[in-house]
Amino acid sequence: MISQTDIRRARILVVDDEPVNVQLLEFLLKTSGYEQVQSTTDPRQVPALHLQYRFDLIILDLQMPHMDGFQVMEALKPMERESWLPVLVVTAEPDKKLAALEAGARDFIGKPFDTVEVLTRIRNLLEVRLLHRESREHGARLERKVRERTAELQRFRGALDATADAIFLVDGRSMAMVDVSDGACRMLGFSREALLRIDPVALGLADRALLERYADPLQSAHEHDIVETELLRADGQGAVPVEISWQLQLGETRMLIAVARDVSERRQAQQRLEHMANYDRLTGLPNRTLFFKTLADAIELAQDKNWRIAVLFITLDRFKVVNDSLGPARGDQLLREFSSRLTRRVRRDSVGRLGGDEFALILTMTREQREEEAVAIANEVREALRAPFDLDGQQAALTASIGISMYPDDAIDAGTLVKYADVAMVRAKEAGRDGYRFFTAGMNVQVLARLDLELALRVALEGEQFELHYQPKLDLNTGRVTGVEALLRWRRPGHGLVYPAEFVPVLEDTGMVVRVGGWIIDEACRQIAAWNAAGVRDLRVAVNVSSRQFVEGDLEGDIRAALDKHKVDPGLLELELTESALMSNFEHTVEVLDRLKQLRIRIAIDDFGTGYSSLAYLKRFPIDKLKIDIAFVRDITTNPDDAAIAMAIISMAHSLHMQVIAEGVESRAQMVLLRRHFCDEIQGFHISRALPPDELSKLVLDNRAQPGRPTADDRNVQTLLVVDNDVNVLTSLHRLFRRDNYRVLTAATPAEGFEQLALHHVQVILCDQRMPMMNGIEFLSKVKEMYPDTMRIILSGYAGVDTVLDSINRGAIYRFYTKPWNDNELRDNVRLAFRQYWLTHGPHDDRKAPRDEAVA
Q1: Mean pLDDT of the chain
Q2: At what angle do helices 46-53 and 69-80 cross, to 10 degrees?
Q3: pLDDT value of position 33
């Protein structure tokens, strides 16, 4: 019986050329209770150390100088003839795992590793090792049992190899593989010798707890226990699905017999049957059964996320006429072509064919999205039918009638939602076809809710239910908060804090925005005075001015009255107007803004780039600042078009002597990229959400006590960016290039790569070709547009020659290298890439730097 004390006192050797890996494993083992842990960074010492200490476990890295892990295992083989030596291989190269098992390893783990998995595998191997050591102490008795077992196995040999199934014999005490059949070798592609060296758990036969249960006579029912699992293949290409029958044979020794039958064909047949049961044979779309299940799942998620769902019930007008006149074959062809057009415009898994010419569509929306989203999809479906269908030379033109029901407004279960959408579709047909209708009951509920909201808003202003929150703006030159934007909030009784998107459109539609806008200006000036009295000075407050407020109200009078009432410096007030507000009445707007400018009030254009104002008109307005709309900031680090638009706005504004502020900045990468291109201010969740006045004043005082500090200019730092979705490859390349004193940045996704490019000055990029979402050439093509000076290299084992040559010709990449790579050759070529960069661009002269970068 193996005790905890035996395991704790087991002798363990850690072998890795990286000291940090050795220290990490030593710390992990010692803190887990292991008492005799040694280590070495020189693999050449391993054979001598093992002769001296006879280790119970060697944790061995594969990739090492002077003597790699395969050479170490070869040197240990003579010693292994005398004892069962467990070698646990640790590797960052998954394609070498099977080779390691062939070479003598008992098990393997990948880098980076999971702590719990490492400790579990170490304990399992030590138990097996100690069982072997215990067995050796029995001497002659063990030898006799081995001879008996060998004779017994020889008697089984003919039976083992006569069947096409895979048969595995496992020692019920040590849990080591004793013998395998020829069928097992054929099924998995291993040699017999390799299979005998692989741990049954690593092969996939069962987990250790299950093996122990099968081997225990008290727990085993002595009957076949059939389970389904997947076994490891020698070529590493997936796994073999099998059905395993287990049986325990008792005698002088306990022997577990596992008979594995390949069930690949049965699984494929099951998948075909499942597809036939869930998908329409004619169109390939989900059928009624699967559609209702998908809708039920969508409702369950919508309940959790507080989302909305629109169900569109679609039927083709006059389909029966076409089917009867042209025949069922052409009718089927029409349905196939319509479904194909439909799935090109919406996701296939959200569409279903309910029968005949009836289709349905699921549209999931957030609470903020309105019914117009469903209307847009309905029009997309109608647009899909605009072009005539060519049915073997016969032209057919159709329209569609569409009914729409809403969750949770109309119903909360899948069956009722589809029924209500069907009713609405019938009403659309009755109204003249080629149109859509919402389920009427839901529309009535929305109308009543809108009336209730309007009434509540009229009471809100009189009842002092509105309040202002303030979102800070950061000056990128100094790292200081120098201004805020006042944002309206409604503390509605019984509902809590209501955000503007839910009620401002109603204020605009009803005209109440004029009175509310006047209150906002007065409240903002009152708050400026309160902050000044509290010592929070020189903080500009920006307020939004709607087009109706500008045209219908007395904006100038409201501002003069508020400034006079609260004795506020006009230079601390800033107005943000949209382009549509500016252009609604051009001459009047110019006159009002000129008079406000004489008061020293600053004027900013909000959401710049989304309107239709002419630059010729724009330069006639007394504008101080342009505000880049969030639509161009959200993807500024990954979308070349958005980045180009933002940079063009910055350049144009500076040429017109205007400042630029970017809104919606949510990450440090966005902030650094905007600063690099000389944006003046930013605003967004990266700095702070909108805060109540007291919290905002504390944030400002904290910022002014310790503003962002300038960082060192890194433009002359040799920086290499490695992008690969395989973290083991990233680890290997990071270790390889670290020797050359580069700053090595790594990214596991293209999105992370764009973030690193925004945060750092990068000269050379090494990128994998095959990655999810975006391949390497697509990634580098975008990089070329955004960072044209970079040296871009593809490292891949998958890219086709035509694709690579086309990319090189278009200038997307500088070089192409294949996996697996030669370390020295790759290092030399990356070194040449850096040399080419510096020869072309030269080092950066700090004296010419327009300004340092700072962090907020």
Answers
A1: 83
A2: 30
A3: 86
Residue 643, both tokens: 């980045």
Q: What pLDDT, on a 0 to 100 scale, did the predictor assign at position 346?
A: 77
Bridging pattern class, strands 602-608 and 573-578: parallel
Strand order through the sheet with 177-180: 177-180, 166-171, 255-262, 239-249, 225-232
Q: HEC profile for 214-260?
A: HHCCCCCCCCCEEEEEEEECCCCCCEEEEEEEEEEECCCCCEEEEEE
pLDDT tens digits, 385-444: 778 888 877 788 888 889 999 898 888 899 999 988 988 888 888 777 788 888 876 544
Q: Report angle CA 302, 304, 308 to the nearest 5 degrees.
A: 25
Maximum distance among all Cα pairs of the chain, rounded to whole angstroms: 110
Q: Length of the chain in residues, anyone?
A: 856
Burial of 435 (0-12, 13-18, 19+ CB in 10 A): middle
Beta strands in 595-749 (DSSP E): 602-608, 625-628, 659-663, 681-683, 710-711, 719-723, 743-747
Q: Closest by alpha carbon to 450, among 369, 519, 507, 498?
A: 507
End-to-end CA distance of the chain: 62
pLDDT for position 611: 57
pLDDT at 6: 80
Cis, peptide link before residue 408, omega less than 30° from 0: yes
Cβ-count burial of 752 within 10 angstroms (0-12 exposed, 13-18 middle, 19+ buried)?
A: middle
Count how many Cα atoms sit within 13 Å of the Cα of residue 538 in the half-sphere of its side chain. 5
C-alpha closest to that of 510 among 456, 467, 466: 456
Q: If pLDDT is split at 50, 70 and 90, which confidence band does 257 have?
A: confident
C-beta pairs of 663-668 under 8 Å, 24+ apart in sequence: 663/627, 663/628, 663/629, 663/630, 663/633, 664/629, 664/630, 664/633, 664/634, 665/633, 666/634, 667/637, 667/755, 668/759, 668/855
Between the alpha carbon of residue 164 and those of residues 52, 159, 183, 243, 593, the distances in Å are: 47, 11, 5, 13, 90
Question: How distant is the alpha carbon of residue 567 from its chain centre?
Answer: 51
Please state, in angstroms and as integers, the Cα–Cα distance from residue 763 to each residue in 667, 668, 722, 777, following that order. Answer: 23, 20, 11, 17
What's the order of all strands across the beta sheet hosting 358-365? 351-355, 358-365, 308-316, 400-407, 436-438
Omega cis (within 30) before 820:
yes
Contact assessment for residue 247 and residue 257, using Cβ atoms and an 8 Å cutoff:
yes
Quote the CA–CA distance of 696 and 531 in Å, as a whole number.
Answer: 10
Cβ-proximal residues to 759 (8 Å cutoff; 6+ apart), any chain: 668, 669, 672
Average pLDDT of span 129-147: 60
Lay out the sheet containing 36-40: strands in order across: 36-40, 11-15, 57-61, 87-91, 107-110
Least confident of 211-225, 487-501, 660-674: 211-225
User: Tens digits of per-residue pLDDT, 605-632?
Assistant: 887 766 555 566 677 788 899 999 888 8
Which has the higher per-residue pLDDT, 817 or 788? 788
Q: What is the dihedral of CA 579, 585, 591, 597, to 10 degrees?
A: -20
**Could you tell me which of 94, 108, 259, 109 has the C-alpha nearest to residue 184?**
259
pLDDT of residue 149: 55
Is residue 576 within 8 A of residue 604, CB to CB? The reply is yes
Which of 481, 528, 526, 538 is CA-nearest to residue 699? Answer: 481
- The yes-or-no verdict on residue 9 having pLDDT over 80 is yes
pLDDT in the model for residue 251: 65
